[in-house]
Give the backbone structure.
Amino acid sequence: MWHDFDAEKLGELTVRNVQGLTDVLSESMLKNCSVLAKLDLQSCTSLVPLPEAIGNCTKLKKLNLSWCHNLVALPKAIGNSTQLNGLNLQCCESLVALPKAIGNCTKLNEPNLEWCRIVPPLKPLATAYSSKSSICIGARV
């Protein structure tokens, strides 16, 4: 999908409701996204792993992965995105844990973990929260 796409100056990317496409976000596309500030992949149900190259997005501030039902993990390299202040993982039902490196994202406030299966304690996030932050964790019955 992203063959020969020049992402070097890409500041914002929105790809929503993509189903059945396995290469929603490729390593090669992300490797040059050093200025990407906002990435919205809401409802990309085919997204299973978030590419390790997300760590190259060092200016990333907002990451929306809500409704990515099949997302099973965030890569350790997410910790390189130290400017990250918004993380939406709502309804990522297959996601059961966050990498410890998420603690490097010290600007992260109020990540939305509603309807995730991430089980407390959320020690990796403890350092990423200000006293005003909250965690919303739900479970479907």
